[in-house]
Structure formats: structure tokens, C-alpha cells
Amino acid sequence: MNIPQQGLSKEEILSALRSFKTRDMDWKGGRVWGYTYNPGAESAEVTGEAYMAYLTENGLDPTVFPSLLKLETDVARAVIALLRGDASAVGHLTSGGTESIMLAVKTARDMARVTKAHITAPEIVLPKTAHAAFHKAAHYLCLKPVIVEIDPATFKVRAEDMERAITENTILLVASAPNYSQGVVDPIAEIGAVAQKHDLLFHVDACVGGVHLSFMRKLGHAVPDFDFTVPGVTSISCDLHKYGYAAKGCSVIMYRNKDIRRFQIFACSDTTGYTLINPTLLSSKSGGPMAGAWAILNFLGEEGYMQIVNEVQDAAKKLIEGVNAIPGLRVLGDPAMCMFSFASESINVYQLADEMAKRGWYIQAQFATPLTPRNIHISVTRGTSRNAEALLADLRECVETVRSIPPIDSGNIRTLVNAALQSPDPLAAFGQLAASAGLAGSELPSEMALINEVLEALPDEVCNMFLVNFFNELYA
Ligand SMILES: *Cc1c(COP(=O)(O)O)cnc(C)c1O
Fold first, then answer.
1. pLDDT at 447 over 90
2. Which residue(s) pair with 341 in the sheet?
3. Which numbered atom of ligand 1 lies nearest the CA of 98?
4. 208 lines ligand 1 (CB under 6 A)
5. Ligand 1 contact via 178 beta carbon (within 6 Å)
6. pLDDT tens-digit readout, 359-380
7. Pairing state of beta strands 339-344 and 375-379?
8. 133 lines ligand 1 (CB under 6 A)
9. 166-221 pLDDT, tens per residue?
10. Crossing angle of the two packed helices 449-457 and 349-358, in degrees rounded to 10
11. Is 109 in the pocket of ligand 1 (CB under 6 A)?
């Protein structure tokens, strides 16, 4: 569009905005098993109003807006208490899990520059199941990610494999509680002991699990220790905009003490402008996400969260049992909470996801790795839990549909991909291949199975290059 010569009316604007959503998937109807964490209409209204009440206030300067200092410290303290930090633990609100992780990694890097100044090529040790945000942080911060394979039966990393990956350049160990892909918790206590033995920082990524697992523990479920009670854990990330059911744009990054946290904070007085002091990545920082998070914690209270966790765990248990009972499907690992994935030896799960999409369900394809099979991820939330039976019924039917339609010839696709790899201009050859699979230009694809096949068959670096090109074309 161009900026209109004359402004539009509020009604015109809001009706246009509503109309843009017609091709979006139906998250309000509880059919999107990822990306959205719907707390229910009443809670959403409270967070929405709280968000709007602080939309314009700027967290940039706590002396001008002490209200935002209060909101941020209130929420951080509440989450530190939930994750059983003691009086020395500290934390900040960030825009999301990625920013929390980026900051934990930057803090480790900057602390090592002082405390381990001999290290010139710093490394961070990551399980294969660690979130891509750690790779992004390593990329942005010029660190080397050292990837540790997981046990393919449990999808957990082994503490001894983490220890073996430590070198004189290591500055940080990472583990997940749980990992996003399979929803299993790494052996945090054992890795904490390794971190202490080697005098290393240890970040626990509880982005998706911090809130939900803590309330599961309070409800008496068997939850492995993953929080500040574990010796050796030095920082934790916990997203409120996931299972905290806050509005998007809110995560917490926490440190065991201020001696570590100080390396996160950036100050600059070397310009003609105002002196800048930024504890987090953002500088101008809307109060909206903070107020939204403050509101939902207070609106739900411990009882509200525990009721949600009960509902969601019931649905997750039903789904995991139900999926395992469908011939040909198999849940991977032993999921710790309400996120899980399943694979199949007899049908193509990418085709299954497409068949489910035709019925309005979004379930998430995850690629195979050298040790693990391609699979479908499902996150159960308050917004989707009521549809567990309906999802299972359609899954059962769609598995039969996939058995009855022509299977994708994965072998043939690998042959085509390998031929493209040999061609003089591999990227152009992949472009053609992907276009024939339905991925080209600035159009969004409607079916993903073939595209997923092609992308999965590509070597990681070529796949990444291809995806960068695709987004480079897709956006303005
Ligand atoms: C979602 C997630 C992240 C990244 O968080 P964003 O809020 O999407 O930036 C990191 N780690 C885990 C385990 C996650 O589930």
C-alpha cells in the first residue's frame, strides 16, 4: 500500500484489519496446536485491557516511568519465586524467549572476557535438541556452537556427553526443561554438577516449561528438578507469553546473582544524545507486555494456573495415549508435560499434516535429523485442550486417508536433490525443484508435504540458504 492521501476512518481501518485474517488458521476455535496460548476469553480481556493501559509508557527510563520499574520487578520477582530462586536471584523482562536466550549467551560471553580472558574463540555447548535461538545467539555474538547428540531413544542429552564436549574454550553449557521438539527434560541436576566441576555457567532453557512444570510440581506430579534449586544452574529463561498465558512480547531472563547479571547491562554516555542504560536488548520498550503479564499472573493466581495445568495435563495424557493407540503412529520419548511429538514407520507424517490442515487443524512438521525421525509436534494449551477428542478422531481418519492416497516417493526426491547438488548452480536448481513442489516467489504454499520432503533432503547449510532466499522474496 501507499500511505493514503487522506486518512481512513476508524471503522474502515478495523474492518480492513479484520479482513486480513481470513486466511489465518482458526486459533480461537482451538484448532492450532502451536504458536498461540489462548487463556480463554475472560483472561484475554483482562490482559488486553492491561496491555492497552500501558501501551505508550516507555520502559527506557525508570526515572520517568517508575510504574514500569514496578511492573518489571514485580513480575520478575514472582517468576523467580516460582522457579525457587533465593534472595540473591535477579531477573528482567524481555520481548520473548529469543531475547532472553540471546542475553544469557551475551552475559556468558562478556563475563568470560573478564574472568577467562585467555579464551579467544569462545564455545557454547548445546544439546541437539536445544532451541534454534541458541544458534542464532552464537551467530549474532560470534561464538562457536558445539552440538552434542542426544540419546535417540529418550531425546535427552547425556550429562557425560556434555562433559566430553567441554574444551578450554567453553564458556557456557545449555540444557532444556523441556525441549520444544519432543517436550522432554534434559538431566539438569547431572549437567549442573558437570558445570560446577568445570567452573562453567549453565543456562536452563525453561522458556516453554518454566511456568507449567512449576505448577505441575505444586500439584504433586513427578517433575525433575530444573530450577534454581539445582546446584550449578546459573541462569534460566522462562517465557510468560507461552504457558504463562500472557500477551506476546514477554519472557523473563533470570540469573543466580547480580555478579553474573551485571554483564548483561549496557550503558553508553559517549554520544551527543541522552545517556543510554539498557539492561535488555530493547531500548524503547512498551509497558504493554509487562502490564499484560502482571495482569494475568494476578488474575489467574496460583489456583487459576493449577486448574489450567490440570485440564491441560488431562488432555495431553488422553492425546498421548490416543496417538499411541493409532496403528502406525508412535509418540517419541517420554514427554514431561503437555508437548509431544509422534513419528510413523508406515505413513508419511508430512502428508498427514496436510490432510489435517484440510480439516482446519494446524499440527507442526519437524524434520528428521541423522539420529531421529521426521515427526509431528503438538502443544496442548488451555485454548486447544477441549478439542483433544476431536483432534484424535480426525487423526484416525486422516491416517487412513494418507494410506489410501499415492505416497510421496522420498527416494526419488533425494535423487532429484542430489542431482541438483551436482549441478553448476545448485541454488538455482533447488529453486526449480522447490517451485515444482509449490514453493516459489511471494506466494504462500497451501500444501507442505512435498516442500518438506525437498527441504529435509537438502544438506542443512543449503536448506538454510534456500530458506533465506525464500524469505528475501516473500517480504517487502
Ligand atoms: C519458544 C521457545 C524459545 C524461543 O522463544 P520465542 O519467544 O519464540 O523467541 C526458546 N526455547 C524454547 C524451549 C522454546 O519453546
1. no
2. 377
3. 9
4. yes
5. no
6. 999 999 999 999 999 999 999 9
7. antiparallel
8. yes
9. 999 999 999 999 999 999 999 999 999 999 999 999 999 999 999 999 999 999 99
10. 150
11. no
